[in-house]
Amino acid sequence: MSEHSQQIEDVARVIRARIGGEASPAEDAVGTARLAARIGRASAPRRQFYLGAAVAFAAACLVAFGYASSTRLGYVVSAREGSTSAGATASSGSAVAFSDGSRIRLAAGAVGQVESTSFRGAVFRLEDGALEADVVHRQLTHWSVKAGPFTVDVKGTRFAVSWSPVARRFVLTLHEGAVDVRGDLLPEARRVQTGERLVVDLVAQRSWLEKGVAPTPQSETVVPGAPSAASEPSTVEGPAPVISPAAGAASAQHGQASKSALGPSWTERVAAGDFRGVVDDAQRRGPDGVLTQAASADLSALADAARYVGDRALSTRALNAQRQRFPGTERAAVAAFLLGKLAEESGNLAGAAESYARYLSERPSGTFAQEALGRRMLTLRGADPKAAAEAAREYLQRFPQGPRAGPARQIAGQP
Amino acid sequence: MPSENSAKTLPWRNPPASVAESRAEDAALVALLLERSPAAASAVWVRFAPGVRRILRRAIWPHGDVEDLVQDVFVILFRKLDTLRDPASLRPFVFSITATVAATELRKIRVRRWLRLTPDGILPDQTGTSRDDDGREVLSKTYAVLSRVADRDRMAFVLRTLEGFELLEVASALNMSVSSVKRRVARVHERIEREIRRDSGLTAHIGLPARESKEQP
After folding, report:
1. How far, in whole angstroms, is CA A185 from its chain's centroid?
2. pLDDT tens-digit map of A308-342
3. What is the largest CA-CA distance in chain A?
4. 8 A C-beta contact, residue A328 and residue A322
5. A280 to chain B, minimum CA–CA distance in Å?
6. Exposure of A121 by Cβ count < 10 A (0-12 exposed, 13-18 middle, 19+ buried)?
7. Measured between CB atoms, does A261 come within 8 Å of chain B?
8. CA–CA dist A414, A34 (Å, integer)
9. Given B34, B136, B139, which is nearest A97 (Cβ)?
10. What is this model's ipTM?
């Protein structure tokens, strides 16, 4: 308002004082009722408007939204804990609600984004972690969920997907309906039906289908891939997964998780959703020992598990250990990105920006480069607008159609 | 996932504490609307109707009742909600529609003015009818100026100067560049100042410096 002279301020003050926007409750009620009549083209007697304004208004809105049924889907990203965020990118604990009633919920620590929408459905990309999808079936419905090199084609169903770019592992569990999955190690589209679980382990170069997986109640918040007594596979197609325990000094030298006949590795358990079990296991063994001896894969798994159960301190320690003990590796670079996310979640924006910069310097074209650059831009915005603008310009140059292109243009001061 | 209950618990009636909070509430509201929540439809009305009404009144004063226009805004809002790409941008979306509705009405007024006896369609003030004649005079003179500027200049003045919108918000609502907004607002300010300086009584009322001191330094 600095461009306003005192004279203009005086004029504005007079106008503001004399022309307001107030309406009495009665005027408001009449207004909503008239609006209901206009939108809904209601023919009810006038007195009903006064008696049932709220009801009529609600009905009118339903009519209004009915017009949108043949147009592109709308959606909103909202966080589980009441606060909400907007835009195409969803992260830890978020839910994405689409205008056709379909929903996608991300597990804690997961990152994904809506790539596109159409009148038939949407394409959602899961970058990391797990999600649960509930897609409403309609005529011509076509949805896709992409996770790493995999694409799940959906007509209308309820399912869970998890993808770990570090463990290179994809898991799809069908609660209802059927989907087709395409991707690495799947030479042709693989049909997965109710009660089945498809697992593709790119590290082990194996895929298999588990049958007889118990369907999860619709109302339950499911951690994808989480095993239960009732969900043990009764039939397994293809080779059985390698069963290996966590932590072993010898293999840790090579960054590989050690194996024994005692049980699944931490990576396996995280992929199956047993986050609490992995954290408890680490606590039993003693975190200090684990962090100095565990294999690189186990440190990643532990960091993920701790992050998923909300133990940021342990997750941070595991990620720092990863960076110190296995510098220069892909996991160490990813650890920098995840450290940024943890710092951001705890309000340490400067630390977050630094970690994102570290990831970008180590993996300028890495899996998380777009996300890291976007997040760095946003975390710098308050404290260092100049650096934020620089990051925004770089973002726009590299990812002009990216999910944060809008904020980037704003920060960069571009129209 | 927001539920219908959250529409009842969120402080829709109170101004949000920050822009971020406002955007978060808007996004939640859109989510609820898309879920066909009746509470959300009412919440949208409660949240935005006063602002919409105020802008429309200030935009078209002294021409008639704005209630029909307020409803036009909400009818368009509900029909176009699916085109809103960023749910957190509900507020600018609403006020962009408001600006469009106001501009359309101003065009109609301009046409109707041809049939009237006064050049600006505003009837002359009757003396001795107001307790605040000076304030009334300021209002009248200002809107006489506004009636002679372009509709987009007038809307830029209303949103920026009277409503206190940020330049970016005005630019977004009027679909023009920030520099264009600045230019248009400055142009209106200059004309208002010039008009008011012609009247020494008004100058005294609103604390303007004496005409001579400004124009003959």
Report:
1. 25
2. 778 889 999 999 999 998 888 888 888 998 899 88
3. 84
4. no
5. 29
6. buried
7. no
8. 42
9. B34
10. 0.78
